[in-house]
Design brief:
It contains 10 helices and 14 strands. It has 306 residues and is an alpha/beta fold. It has a 6-stranded parallel β-sheet with strand order 1-4-3-2-5-6, sandwiched between helices. A 6-stranded antiparallel β-barrel has the order 9-10-13-12-11-14. The protein has a two-stranded antiparallel ribbon with strand order 7-8. A hairpin with a 2-residue loop joins strand 7 and strand 8.
Length: 306
């Protein structure tokens, strides 16, 4: 996949495109892209996805802080695996937001990018205040010789797959269901930083994570079985998101205990894939009760990640 941040790829002389933020590049997006590739093969056209580096609502509502499933780099890496030919990263500006759907289709997509066929997501709307719908898009396409088609909806277990639904599942700690909609385990990445070392005094040393991207969604508070990657090496891990209520009940942190691991890794890059939810973030009667539960958590994690 060729990625461009420029206003035009001169090498494209006619293409089949789709427009969207593509947060998560989930099963619904992959269904759309599969349709794109089939239609493009029939028309002997290359495929192109138009996406944005920041969430459109972040530009339209300056106080809005979106919670995202991917960073831009993660999104591009996932799109690259779908087999599309090009990805155009377009700055979403107030000026772009003010443009009508007609102007965007005729001038941006057709004249600037050479789009000959546009595939619209089954519920996707764009243009100023999203005033128009698919019927209008078809009419605008006719004025510039562009074929405009509607994608079919995609359901998983009778549920429409969407980025917002996946975010909801994550905040409800339903990471295995989120993974099925994403088609891959949800992950967070960051750097191992020094903490209060309370876990070490309990016999369960933890790596405290400082997130790379503050806009990424955190799953709900609780304890999870995870796959952890330290500088690319995979480990089994038990991860806690919470405020350590038995110990201090203060700042919410993300800490990972790596099974059968004792090396010092401060400053190392760490990525965790959420595999299973184990239990909630709860306060125990005393430290001994917490230690007993942590032992059970480790046993369950080892079993689940066999």
């Amino acid at each position: 996949m060729i990625v461009t941040y420029q206003p035009k790829i001169n090498a494209i002389n006619g293409c089949l495109g789709a427009v969207g933020f593509f947060d998560g590049v989930h099963a619904g997006h992959r269904h759309l892209i599969k349709e794109m590739r089939r239609l493009a093969d029939e028309r002997e056209l290359p495929t192109i996805v138009f996406t944005f580096p920041v969430h459109p609502r972040f530009v339209l509502q300056t106080q809005y802080r979106p919670k995202l499933l991917n960073t831009l780099d993660e999104k591009l890496a996932l799109l690259d695996k779908t087999g599309i030919d090009y990805c155009a990263v377009i700055d979403f500006t107030p000026e772009l937001a003010a443009r009508s759907a007609s102007d965007f289709i005729v001038h941006t997509l057709s004249e600037e990018w050479g789009v000959k066929c546009l595939l619209i997501g089954y519920d996707h709307r764009f243009g100023h205040q999203r005033q128009d719908g698919f019927e209008q898009y078809m009419e605008y396409g006719k004025t510039c010789g562009m074929e405009v088609l509607h994608s079919t909806p995609f359901k998983l277990n009778n549920q429409i797959v969407s980025s917002s639904k996946i975010r909801q599942l994550l905040t409800e700690c339903r990471v295995d269901e989120a993974a099925r909609m994403l088609t891959y385990p949800y992950s967070l990445s960051g750097v191992v930083v020094s903490g209060q070392q309370r876990g070490r005094t309990l016999g369960f040393p933890t790596a405290n994570m400082e997130m790379n991207d503050p806009l990424k969604v955190w799953p709900g508070m609780g304890v999870y079985a995870v796959r952890a990657y330290i500088d690319g090496v995979r480990h089994k891990g038990m991860l806690a998101i919470g405020n350590r209520p038995t110990l201090d009940g203060e700042e919410i942190t993300i800490e990972v205990h790596l099974l059968n691991f004792s090396s010092m890794i401060y400053g190392a890059h760490i990525e965790v894939e959420f595999k299973y939810y184990l239990r909630d973030n709860k306060k125990f009667d005393n430290v001994e009760a917490l230690k007993r539960q942590l032992k059970l958590d480790c046993l369950m994690t080892a079993e689940l990640l066999q």
